[in-house]
Specification:
Blueprint (H helix, E strand, L loop, with lengths): L3 E5 L1 H5 L7 E4 L9 H12 L7 E6 L9 E2 L5 E3 L6 E2 L10 E6 L1 H12 L1 E3 L8 E5 L13 E4 L1 H9 L4 E3 L10 H8 L5 H15 L4 E7 L3 H10 L1 E2 L2 E2 L2 H15 L6 H14 L6 H12 L19 H7 L1 H17 L14 H9 L14 H16 L7 H15 L7 H7 L7 H8 L7 H13 L12 E5 L8 H4 L7 H8 L10 E5 H7 L4 H6 L3 H10 L12 H16 L3
Parallel strand pairs: 2-7, 3-12, 5-8
Antiparallel strand pairs: 1-12, 2-4, 3-7, 4-6, 9-10, 9-11, 13-14, 15-16
């Protein structure tokens, strides 16, 4: 299969869209370009700048393909709308169709600019693409002034003496450049003459759309090329392939739920809990629930003769899956683990599996009821998996092994943490591990601090991190204090205080770091800890040390070594709760 390079005019390519001879694979992301992007594209084309070569897949066996397809957006686009589904099973057999593998954003932009309009969901008027003809662009980065104008904006511009030409008016066969310029009163304007001539040539005559054409009926070959294609910095993820496979499988079975919407609903549900997952995570979770292996392949999500197959199992259990995901992330939030602290979402997938398997989505799993043992063991597993980087390698094998352990050793009233730890003894946290965690430097400290604060909060040792609130890692004694010129002015109380302050490392470790909400961090800024606390309200002077593990400690910079040693003990007291 050797792609060949072809070229065509803009009109030649866009003319295939209304008849659906040119369509999109459901592997593609939605159209994301804004009006500014479209205007810049037209400016580049007008200046004869090359645009990247596109890629089309040509097949005469579309009805048999095991992925889904979509039509192009309607030319009169509303920002945020999705591409309509194209029923390729009903497509004409043995008729060649072209599928855009790379180039959707550019072609859709040309389609909207030349044949339609652009409207935001809240917009009261549609905006059409216009080119200003009485003068060139005042923006030094752009030569031609293309803008999407609503009728009211066009009228306003015209009242200021500006002359604008609607770009789609070059399309009719009756279009005449001379008559158009005379009608606009620009027959003697050289810039206008050159611009409108360039625009007409660009749209109608110039074969500027260059594209590779892949002639093949083998979906595997095409998918391989698609995965390797990088369009505008967007690298296709495997989740996009799996989404298409599941979409067409559900559609072929006549299911009433759209697979694309269902997966999107799971992602949105997690987002409402103040966490983020993507399609790859969702499909890995599906495989944890129903797959023989955890190695993701598109074929796993295509309908087969196996009963029930994975697509059917997902559909038949769609609500229970959704409820299990919600319950898992409710637990994560109840553990006071933040989005930035949850460094691997893979660690949550075994929680979903355990909850799904035992139908616990509507069971209260709390530290204060009969499920307290489950609660504590799940928290221990999750926190240790994060702190000890359980999922840094061998992800599929680890997930499968944990699934096997849950199947063999758990009941509704038991989460098998001890068995998981026996299989992965790296989860054990020794005294040396605790010392190493407290020596973590600021760049990597967020998850460590998050878990320490979460553990401390459960016993009233510190403030409670709240999912959805923004927190920063902050130096307690500010970094500026440890510049050599500043340190030389400090009369330290003991040699240890001086040595620790001058080692160039300790000030930047967990022992001198705290988790501050964003507003408090901005107010503290680079102020010395003692000065900032003395300026706080009396209530905050009591609350702040309790919230951040330094109640009763001297915060005079002259006692820095003593402060660090004492605070390590308080932080370690929280870690011991794990």
């Amino acid at each position: 299969m050797s792609p060949r390079i072809l070229n065509d005019s803009i009109i030649g390519v866009l003319s295939k869209i209304p008849s659906n001879d040119l369509i999109l694979p459901a592997l593609q992301r939605e159209f994301v370009w804004k009006t500014k992007d479209i205007c810049e594209l037209f400016d580049s084309l007008m200046q004869d700048y090359p645009i990247n070569t596109m890629m089309f897949w040509k097949t005469n066996n579309l009805p048999s393909q095991p992925i889904a397809f979509y039509q192009f957006l309607p030319a009169h686009h509303v920002n945020g709308t999705t591409n309509p589904f194209f029923n390729h099973k009903a497509a004409t057999a043995n008729k060649p169709y072209e599928i855009v593998i790379d180039g959707q954003q550019r072609l859709t932009s040309l389609w909207i600019g030349l044949y339609g309009s652009y409207k935001t969901p809240a917009g009261k008027q549609r905006a059409e693409l216009y080119l200003r003809l009485d003068k060139s662009n005042t923006n030094p980065d752009l030569k031609y002034d293309f803008q999407f104008l609503t009728p009211s904006k066009l009228t306003s511009n015209q009242k200021k003496g500006e002359v604008w030409f609607r770009v789609k008016d070059v399309l009719p066969a009756s279009f005449n450049i001379v008559n158009t310029l005379q009608g606009l009163g620009l027959q003697n304007n050289e810039y206008a003459q050159t611009s409108i001539q360039q625009l007409w040539q660009l749209i109608n005559n110039n074969a500027i759309i260059n594209y590779y054409e892949i002639n093949s009926n083998n979906i595997d070959d095409v998918l391989e090329i698609f995965v390797r294609t990088n369009s505008g910095g967007y690298v296709l993820k495997k989740g996009d392939l799996l989404m298409s496979a599941l979409t067409v499988s559900w559609a072929n079975n006549g299911y009433t739920i759209s697979a694309r919407d269902y997966v999107g609903d799971i992602i949105d549900l997690v987002e409402k809990k103040n966490y983020e997952v993507d399609k790859d995570w969702v499909f890995k979770m599906f495989l944890m629930l129903f797959g023989n292996t955890l190695s993701v392949q598109p074929s796993d999500f295509m309908a087969t003769d196996t009963t029930p197959n994975i697509p059917q199992s997902i559909y038949m259990n769609s609500q229970l899956i959704m409820d299990s995901v919600e319950k898992a992330f409710d637990l994560v939030a109840d553990f006071h683990l933040l989005e930035k602290g949850l460094t691997t979402k893979l660690a949550v997938i075994p929680l979903v599996y355990y909850i799904y398997k035992h139908k616990l989505s509507h069971t209260a799993i709390q530290s204060t009821n009969a499920m307290s043992g489950v609660y504590m063991d799940i928290r221990k597993y999750l926190f240790r998996a994060i702190l000890k980087n359980l999922y840094e390698a061998g992800t599929d094998e680890i997930l499968k092994n944990i699934r096997d352990i849950i199947d063999s050793h758990s009941s509704k009233s038991k989460f098998p943490y001890r068995e998981i730890e026996n299989a992965y003894n790296k989860l054990i946290i020794t005294n040396a591990d605790a010392d190493s965690l407290l020596a973590t430097r600021k760049q990597n400290a967020f998850p460590v601090l998050n878990i320490i604060y979460a553990l401390g909060a459960s016993s009233g040792l510190c403030m409670t991190p709240v999912a959805g609130q923004v927190y920063d890692v902050d130096h307690m004694h500010p970094k500026t204090t440890f510049a050599p010129a500043v340190l030389n002015t400090i009369n330290f109380n003991t040699p240890n205080d001086a040595n620790v302050a001058n080692d160039g490392i300790t000030y930047d470790t967990v022992a001198n770091l705290e988790l501050l909400d964003n507003d408090t961090n901005r107010s503290k800024n680079k102020k010395p800890l003692k000065d900032w606390l003395n300026a706080a309200t009396p209530a905050d002077q009591i609350k702040y040390p309790q919230d951040h593990f330094f109640k009763g400690l001297s915060i005079d910079i002259a006692d820095f070594g003593t402060f660090v040693d004492a605070r390590k003990k308080l932080l370690n007291q929280a870690l011991c709760l794990l």
